[in-house]
Design brief:
With about 600 residues, the chain is α+β, with helices and mostly antiparallel strands. It contains 18 helices and 23 strands. The strands form five sheets. The protein has a six-stranded antiparallel β-sheet. A hairpin with a 5-residue loop joins β15 and β16. α1 runs antiparallel to α2, α1 packs parallel to α5 and α15 packs across α16. The chain is elongated, with a radius of gyration of 51 Å. It starts with a helix and ends in an 8-residue tail after the last strand.
């Protein structure tokens, strides 16, 4: 009897080992994971000594809809549609399978009881082996075998099934690593293809000799790969950059740091092209470079556009700038250096350098306008003066800028333009002078006089000051034109205008209304008698002989005077009253002046 038992034990051991060997064969094959796991179930269910029902399943861990860990049925044999639906997904801790996953400990149940939470009508009585599939303490899944109802736990079976779970653990992990490796290889291949299509890639040794060049490098340089390999990168050197440029680049990468920059290279046929380059040193265990990987992008078209833009900016006198408010870094185009009169090699673009160029009288205005645009979230559009650094010349510029905002609404960058508008301002001033100046005498014309009269009147009202308005007509001027011609007449008018200017203060306003009519506004005269003294002096000077082209010209003048606030409070009334006084002076015999009095309104 003992010999028979020993023989059965030896046979069982041999069968187990054979089964394990076959399991290893199955898991080392190339079947998809689910198919491989199902084949493993078939092999285990075929063992004659295991007291199992022909029903089993394998659950693997996953994530449920809310992110919680669950078991998902991925392989099964003979479980039936009801079980597949009810047990397709089991939460950790739920039923016997979920508890084995939660605890990481094997569970045996001889029969269905309250611990078996998922029960449905018509379920046949049965027991369970629930063996967790573990890898370094982590639960990968659960191996479930159905037992005939009432089957007690068999330690030999239990131990064997745990060994089988270990084989499955290695297989699942291996498949997972294979999938990850394949995904990484696909990603690397995709990145390489993407990089090769987009970038110019090369590898060089510590001496700068090319050891690898991709197709795009060959295409843009015009060299074949065979012509490039073994050559030094100096084969591409153009005459654009000074030796200091290359010295800085080599000093950076030989010290183990990454270098970024833009380089102009020369093709095989002598043409040039621009690249934006990043050179990364590969370091050995001692931290020393043993090779350099260069990744470049073709920016020839961009540089061509930039060159054309710079030329256009130079022609138009427009410079562009960009201020990063997060880093306080300012970039501006070459034309701004030209506008500000700053040598490129002596001044670095900065906000302080810009403010230094602003005319002192406009500085606060510029600061206020820019700050107001930041706070008010509107574009910045102003005109102001600058002082050129090289010549000290005062110039006019027109500035515009717009702001860029972060997701939370904060201004992060300002982009703008500066245009030299000195020529336009001078033209505008010239047009304004033409519109506001009498062309013959250079005095203010009627338009300018009225404008300045209104301004002076407002100031006088605010500061409680006086004004005196003087209107003048030249007497005996028409005979001059008739006798000597208009050219002589014009010279007479210029001479009279010179008298007005000579005997008026800078604050006074002298104007020619037209023909032989003039007006003088005495701003803040000392007294009412000051206007009378001025009028008398003008009369005395005008009646003196004027020598024009060897002709002795004799003329006179009549003057009317009205004052603010004694006579009137408004400009129109003052002009009317001064005109009344003028006609009264003419009536009295000319070469005299008359002060306004109310009785002149009712002659």
């Amino acid at each position: 009897m003992q010999d028979a038992q020993a023989l059965n034990g030896d046979c069982r051991i041999a069968e187990n080992e054979h089964a394990l060997i076959e399991l290893f064969g199955i898991v080392s094959g190339h079947q998809p994971l689910e198919q491989m796991l199902a084949s493993c179930l078939d092999r285990l269910l075929s063992l004659s000594w295991l007291s199992l029902l022909p029903k089993a399943g394998i659950f693997l861990t996953g994530k449920g809809v809310n992110g919680a860990s669950v078991l998902q049925l991925v392989a099964e044999r003979n479980l039936g549609e009801e079980v597949r639906q009810r047990c397709g997904t089991v939460r950790f801790g739920e039923c016997l399978c979920g508890r084995a996953a939660q605890t990481g400990e094997p569970i045996h149940a001889a029969c269905i009881d309250t611990a078996h939470e998922i029960i449905y009508p018509g379920m046949q009585p049965h027991g369970h082996y629930n063996i967790p599939i573990l890898a370094e303490g982590q639960v990968l899944g659960v191996l479930v075998f159905y037992l005939p109802h009432g089957t007690a736990r068999d330690e030999a079976q239990f131990a064997f099934l745990c060994r089988c779970a270990g084989v499955l653990s290695m297989a699942i992990e291996l498949r997972s690593k294979e999938q990850q490796l394949k995904a990484m290889n696909r990603e690397l291949m995709f990145q390489k293809e993407t990089l090769d299509h987009h970038a110019i890639v090369s590898v060089a040794d510590v001496n700068g000799n090319i050891t690898y060049a991709n197709r795009k490098f060959c295409d843009i340089s015009g060299y074949s790969q065979a012509e490039l390999l073994g050559q030094n990168h100096r084969i591409l050197k153009s005459d654009e950059h000074a030796n200091a440029f290359y010295d800085d680049m080599w000093q950076t990468i030989t010290s183990g740091q990454v270098w970024h920059g833009e380089i102009k290279n020369k093709k095989r046929n002598g043409d040039h092209y621009w690249v934006s380059a990043t050179i990364v040193p590969c370091l050995n265990e001692q931290g020393e470079p043993f090779q350099y990987i260069a990744i470049r992008t073709d920016i020839t078209e961009r540089k061509s556009i930039e060159s054309a833009l710079q030329q256009a900016q130079k022609i138009a006198g427009i410079g562009s700038w960009s201020l990063d408010l997060l880093t306080d870094k300012l970039l501006w185009s070459d034309e701004i250096y030209n506008i500000f009169g700053m040598p490129v090699d002596q001044f670095r673009a900065s906000f302080s350098a810009f403010l230094d160029a602003v005319h002192p009288d406009d500085l606060e205005y510029v600061k206020e306008q820019y700050q107001g645009s930041l706070e008010g979230r509107f574009p910045y559009n102003i005109e102001h003066r600058i002082v050129r650094r090289d010549t000290g010349e005062v110039r006019w510029v027109h500035e515009m800028c717009a702001h860029q905002y972060s997701a939370d609404g904060q201004v992060i960058r300002s982009d703008g333009t500066v245009q030299d508008i000195t020529g336009r301002k001078e033209a505008q001033d010239a047009i304004h002078r033409l519109a506001m100046t009498d062309q013959l005498t250079g005095l203010a014309n009627r338009n300018q006089f009225h404008q300045r009269f209104e301004e002076a009147l407002k100031l006088a009202k605010r500061e409680h000051k006086e004004l005196a308005l003087i209107l003048l007509d030249l007497d005996m001027f028409k005979p001059v034109n008739d006798l000597y011609g208009h050219q002589v007449g014009d010279k007479v008018l210029k001479a009279v205008a010179g008298l007005f200017t000579r005997y008026s203060r800078e604050t006074d306003v002298v104007a020619r209304f037209g023909g032989d009519e003039f007006a003088v506004l005495l701003v803040h005269p000392d007294s009412r008698s000051s206007a009378q003294q001025y009028a008398q002096r003008i009369i005395e000077k005008i009646i003196e002989p004027i020598i024009i082209d060897a002709h002795e010209i004799r003329i006179g003048t009549s003057i009317g005077i009205a004052t603010y606030p004694a006579d009137a409070a408004g400009a129109d009334e003052l002009i009317l009253y001064a005109d009344k006084a003028l006609y009264e002076a003419k009536r009295q015999g000319r070469n005299t002046y008359c002060m306004f009095r109310p009785s002149l309104l009712n002659p």
